[in-house]
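Q: How would the structure tokens look for this protein?
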Amino acid sequence: MNTYKIPHRRSGKNPKKSVSTETFRLRSAYQGRGWKPRTAALAVELAGAGAPRVNSEYKRLKAVLLYCPGREMADIKDPNAVQHLAGISPQKIRREYRELTAAFRKCGVAVHLMRTDFPRGGKKLDKYNLMYVRDLFVNTMEGAVVARMASAARAGEEKYAAFALSRLAIPVVRTIAGKGLFEGADALWLDERTVLCAVGNRTNEEGFLQLRATLALQGADVLKTALGRGVQHLLGLLQIVDRKLALLRAEKAPAELRSVLKRKNFTVIPVPETDEVRLRQGLNIVTVAPRRLIMPSGCPGLKALYLKAGLSVEAEVEISQLINGAGGLACATGILERAV
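A: Here is the predicted structure in token form.
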């Protein structure tokens, strides 16, 4: 705390001037002369500082957060116990991440790597799903909302995201708390003032309400939709690739979701339920600019569909090991910054 010592009045030829109580109270330290109130909204301050912000799913992608798994993958004895579908090779997944990083950089996207080197009390790293960074936060115009993971297997991953965000000087405007559950892949920006959040599988009502309250402070609305069985997140059903243009697994999408998109005047490109979607995670794409995307390799049918719809495939990346972990390309990509 700042303190100011009032000099005592001294006798003598040249006594030092004292500061009266009234003058003391008028100092800037006490909201007096020289005090400058903070009047701008946080979004305005961040814009002036050039901080990473997000208000869409399709504008030019500028920065992402990735986590490349290490030797901990070799410690997994039972994939199902950690929510994986099959074993993951540490060597092969590192190769996939090198390819993914190169693809992003080719598209002019800055790649930041999530670190796990803060103190763990001597314990080995036992978080086997950290590579699915998209689930751990959602960035906004005023900073990030850090998730609270729905499963016991992923509890505690949130602190690694918070650590990474703080290193990048991105404010954390909320961490989902209490009984709230929220995963970042359940929230998609429909437009600059509207987020759609799926509730039911990985995000609960309390998590949704906390997200909505936080974004309301920014003047953004959060709409709600349900998800059916056999889907992890909203991101697994819906991809927004340009203004009012979406790819949708129409056969899987609940009526509520289709209704929201219709109400918001979206043109919907239906994506059929094929093995490329279900097994190859072919809709698990990352939009790097309007109508430009990076997609998984080995999906010729979907690639043809995308090209026919006027989309451009900038790169195709092998993701067999990410698929073994029950995720895909979009799941692995934490969106830090897009053009706004």
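The chain has a mean pLDDT of 93.

The longest helix spans residues 90-106.

Upvote if useful.
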